[in-house]
TrEMBL record:
Residues 1-113 form the Phosphotyrosine protein phosphatase I domain. This is Arsenate reductase. It comes from the Archaea. Keywords: Arsenical resistance. GO terms for biological process: response to arsenic-containing substance. InterPro entries: Ptyr_pPase (IPR023485), Ptyr_pPase_sf (IPR036196). The keyword Calcium does not apply.
Length: 118
């Protein structure tokens, strides 16, 4: 969701990748549904595994929240921004909508902070 929002609100001005340390094999259908409700089609996105090259080449690294404390990016990435957002996995559609709205808010705040750094 964060990648989709970032792409929408920056209109291609940045290269953004969303990845996880232990990603699912498929997109969460509830996530796809709640994003579709607000006009964002995620059907062409796919879960990706976080790589060292992604981290090394990134301007900023944002951690959504650590579900797996053993492989949390905050453990091995310097200056990671942690949003502490719950994983939508196994959540109700109402909970996923709340997570979606929280992610949207964080993304907009982050974009604003980048604009203010310029």
């Amino acid at each position: 969701m964060a990648e989709a929002f970032f792409r929408k609100f920056t209109e291609g001005k940045f290269n953004v990748n969303s990845a996880g340390t232990v990603p699912s094999g498929n997109l969460n259908p509830v996530v796809v549904e709640v994003m579709k409700e607000i006009g964002i089609d995620m059907t062409n996105q796919s879960p990706k595994t976080l790589s060292q090259s992604m981290i090394s080449s990134s301007f900023k690294t944002i951690n959504m929240g650590c579900m797996d404390k053993e492989s949390c990016p905050a453990l091995f990435v310097k200056d990671v921004i942690d949003w502490n957002i719950p994983d939508p996995k196994e959540k109700t559609i109402e909970q996923v909508r709340e997570i979606r709205d929280q992610i949207k808010s964080e993304v907009l705040n982050f974009i604003n902070s980048i604009d203010n750094e310029k």
